[in-house]
Amino acid sequence: MKNCHLLHVCCAPDLAISYLSGARGDIFFYNPNIHPKAEYEKRYAEVIKIAALFKMNVLKVPYNPDLFFKLTKGLQNEPEGGTRCEICIRMRLEKTMEYAKENGYKSVSTTLTASPKKNVAMIVKIGKELEKKYGVEFLPNVYRKSPLYNDAQKLIRKMGIYRQNYCGCIFSIRNSVIVATQETKTVKSGVEV
């Protein structure tokens, strides 16, 4: 059935686990939060590889980081998972829902729920609010709970798929560097991480 389901995709590793867990539909790679542009292009290229393997259609979506920076202005020092992240997730899901409504899709889900670092309750809450606004069903699939999670990780390694070490925005780069530095210091001091 054409235009049945629209799958918001954040990255190739999360697409792999989501697909193996049953996710289908057209891929909507809308992630203006990813910075710098070279990182965005790298993640997009990896999504194309996984999509080709699974024979999934990837929709062309413009990269617009200015919107992310406008919406999160003044929130640079927010902790990961805080207000800035909530705004970012809402921005991405809202654009997905808007596109779904305009193009006749019946439902939407997101691979954001595959990440063990994301707040699934927050994602589902936002999705359900947007469901009411746009009249497109939001499917709250929690892909990371799949028994095929380890199979997806093996597939990613076998294909040589790039695994990013930060969520995507410039602020999460800073936080991942801080965490990596703290972990290195802890290991060097002989304390288990």
TrEMBL record:
<keyword id="KW-0004">4Fe-4S</keyword>
<feature type="disulfide bond" description="Redox-active">
    <location>
        <begin position="167"/>
        <end position="169"/>
    </location>
</feature>
<comment type="similarity">
    <text>Belongs to the QueH family.</text>
</comment>
<comment type="pathway">
    <text>tRNA modification; tRNA-queuosine biosynthesis.</text>
</comment>
<keyword id="KW-0560">Oxidoreductase</keyword>
<dbReference type="Pfam" id="PF02677">
    <property type="entry name" value="QueH"/>
</dbReference>
<feature type="binding site">
    <location>
        <position position="88"/>
    </location>
    <ligand>
        <name>[4Fe-4S] cluster</name>
    </ligand>
</feature>
<protein>
    <recommendedName>
        <fullName>Epoxyqueuosine reductase QueH</fullName>
        <ecNumber>1.17.99.6</ecNumber>
    </recommendedName>
</protein>
<keyword id="KW-0408">Iron</keyword>
<comment type="function">
    <text>Catalyzes the conversion of epoxyqueuosine (oQ) to queuosine (Q), which is a hypermodified base found in the wobble positions of tRNA(Asp), tRNA(Asn), tRNA(His) and tRNA(Tyr).</text>
</comment>
<feature type="binding site">
    <location>
        <position position="10"/>
    </location>
    <ligand>
        <name>[4Fe-4S] cluster</name>
    </ligand>
</feature>
<keyword id="KW-0479">Metal-binding</keyword>
<keyword id="KW-0819">tRNA processing</keyword>
<keyword id="KW-1015">Disulfide bond</keyword>
<dbReference type="GO" id="GO:0051539">
    <property type="term" value="F:4 iron, 4 sulfur cluster binding"/>
</dbReference>
<feature type="binding site">
    <location>
        <position position="85"/>
    </location>
    <ligand>
        <name>[4Fe-4S] cluster</name>
    </ligand>
</feature>
<dbReference type="GO" id="GO:0008616">
    <property type="term" value="P:tRNA queuosine(34) biosynthetic process"/>
</dbReference>
<dbReference type="GO" id="GO:0046872">
    <property type="term" value="F:metal ion binding"/>
</dbReference>
<dbReference type="GO" id="GO:0052693">
    <property type="term" value="F:epoxyqueuosine reductase activity"/>
</dbReference>
<dbReference type="InterPro" id="IPR003828">
    <property type="entry name" value="QueH"/>
</dbReference>
<feature type="binding site">
    <location>
        <position position="11"/>
    </location>
    <ligand>
        <name>[4Fe-4S] cluster</name>
    </ligand>
</feature>
<keyword id="KW-0411">Iron-sulfur</keyword>
<keyword id="KW-0676">Redox-active center</keyword>
<keyword id="KW-0671">Queuosine biosynthesis</keyword>
